[in-house]
TrEMBL record:
InterPro entries assigned to the protein according to its UniProt record, in alphabetical order: Dimeric_a/b-barrel, Sec-metab_biosynth-assoc, YCII
SUPFAM superfamilies: Dimeric alpha+beta barrel
Coiled-coil stretches noted in the UniProt entry, renumbered to this chain: none
Protein name stated in the entry: YCII-related domain-containing protein
Lineage: Eukaryota, Fungi, Dikarya, Basidiomycota, Agaricomycotina
Residues in YCII-related domain copies: 17-95
PANTHER family named in the record: PROTEIN YCII (PTHR33606)
One of the Pfam families matching this protein, by short name: YCII
Length: 109
């Protein structure tokens, strides 16, 4: 029986900044959230959510400007494959040029 080593990764996925980006996000959000919930239940996503504008802290309406999550997989390539299958990626919500996927190690505080 082989044991595969899993590593943690952080994914920083800012949204595109064109005028239609926010509407694209909202239009596919239910499908994205359903997929993210499945990935969380399956153990891939450890924690994740939307990044907000600083003004969102004091305003009743929250403006989402991207996503960030920590996941667990065997390689960066495996993470990239999952990210590139996400509806936020395929529909152009996330800015593919600014996306970052890096190994992550938690500090033991």
């Amino acid at each position: 029986m082989s044991t595969q080593t899993l590593h943690k990764f952080v994914v920083y996925a800012p949204d595109a900044t064109d005028p239609d980006a926010s509407q694209r996000r909202l239009s596919v959000r239910p499908k994205h959230l359903e997929n993210a919930a499945d990935l969380h239940r399956g153990g891939f996503i450890k924690v994740g959510g939307a990044m907000l504008t600083p003004e969102s802290l004091t305003l009743p309406e929250k403006k989402m400007v991207g996503s960030v999550f920590i996941c667990e997989a065997e390689s960066i390539e495996a993470v990239r494959k999952v990210v590139e299958a996400d509806v936020y990626y395929t529909s152009g919500v996330w800015d593919k040029e600014k996306m970052v996927i890096l190994p992550f190690v938690s500090a033991h505080l």
